[in-house]
Specification:
By secondary structure, the chain is an alpha+beta fold. The protein has helices spanning 33-46, 118-125, 147-157, 164-168, 175-186, 195-208, 219-223, 231-244; strands spanning 3-10, 17-24, 69-70, 73-74, 96-100, 109-111, 114-115. Helix content is 33%, strand content 12%. A five-stranded mixed sheet has the order 2-1-5-3-4. Strands 6-7 form a two-stranded antiparallel ribbon. Strand 6 (109-111) and strand 7 form a beta hairpin. Helix 2 packs antiparallel against helix 6 (195-208). The radius of gyration is 21 Å and the shape is elongated. The structure holds iron/sulfur cluster (SF4) and FE2/S2 (inorganic) cluster (FES). FE2/S2 (inorganic) cluster is lined by residues 56-59, 61-66, 82, 84, 160.
Length: 255
């Protein structure tokens, strides 16, 4: 396969950026998108040019490090797929593609296709944990967890923190990410003692980090590689409102 790539090149944070055109020839259709970029980077290196910087780690769709826009779509055209798991056979031979970093105020560009997603870490730090007593490990079956709740919590826990939801949202909102991180704890018995405080603290941290407000475009759900449902946003909003209410009445656990 032969491709033409238009790639965002930016030397560093605050530096002016521009689109650069590259021709990539002889691409194996079974290679992943990142492997195709590896080949291009090797050719750039051989010509004495700067390689294109992009984030990656596991290349198995589980770590959340990779991600950039391909023709305006976060992680590219294949639903439920990270860019590291996207293979070149899904593109036409001779295609022209535009690669850009996540575009969001809360994710400043570090270099080329890499952005700083540490704002997500600060949202997690605000409440993405449970408090437990130290000492020896408790007996594994001491707290029974109903299967439907465990399954629902697992649906939320699948979020890999890639940031595609923020990048695709016209508002640069992080509600899908934050609601997944709130819900995977708030759905479980172990998450109950801090349930409402957690929702309050993480939503407030999200706003403080410069993410936008959700206005129900649902673009986040459409591009999420883990197909996290926007139902979790409604669940988080309910817990947030409860957290705002003094003398809160506890809500029974349900999916
Ligand atoms: S909700 Fe989906 S798109 Fe957003 S960070 Fe988590 S895995 Fe990525
Ligand atoms: S490199 Fe880990 S999810 Fe893509």
């Amino acid at each position: 396969m032969n491709l033409t790539l238009h790639v965002w090149r930016q030397a560093g944070p605050g530096a002016p950026g521009r689109m650069e055109r590259y021709r990539v020839e002889g691409v194996n259709e079974h290679s992943s998108f990142l492997e195709m970029l590896d080949v291009l980077n090797q050719q750039l290196g051989e010509r004495g040019e700067e390689p294109i910087a992009f984030d990656h780690d596991c290349r198995e769709g589980i770590c959340g490090m990779c991600g950039f826009m391909i023709d305006g779509v976060a992680h590219g055209p294949l639903p439920g797929t990270t860019v590291c798991q996207l293979h070149m056979r899904h593109f036409q031979d001779g295609a022209t593609l535009r690669l850009e970093p996540w575009r969001a105020k809360a994710f400043p560009v570090v270099r080329d296709l890499m952005v700083d997603r540490s704002a997500f870490d600060r949202v997690i730090q605000a409440g993405g944990f449970i408090s437990v007593a130290t000492g020896s490990a408790p007996e594994a079956n001491l707290i029974p967890v109903p299967k439907p709740l465990a399954d629902r919590a697992f649906d939320a826990a699948e979020c890999i923190g890639c940031g595609a939801c923020v990048a695709q949202c016209p508002n640069g909102a992080a509600q899908l990410f934050t609601s997944a991180k709130v819900s995977h704890l708030n759905l479980l018995p172990q998450g109950q003692p801090e349930r409402y405080d957690r929702a309050l603290a993480m939503v407030e941290a999200m706003e403080k980090q410069g993410f936008g407000a959700c206005s129900n475009f649902a673009e986040c759900e459409a591009v999420c590689p883990k197909e996290i449902s926007i139902d979790f946003i409604a669940r988080m909003n309910r817990d947030f409102l409860k957290g705002k209410t003094k003398g809160v009445t506890k809500t029974p656990l349900s999916t």
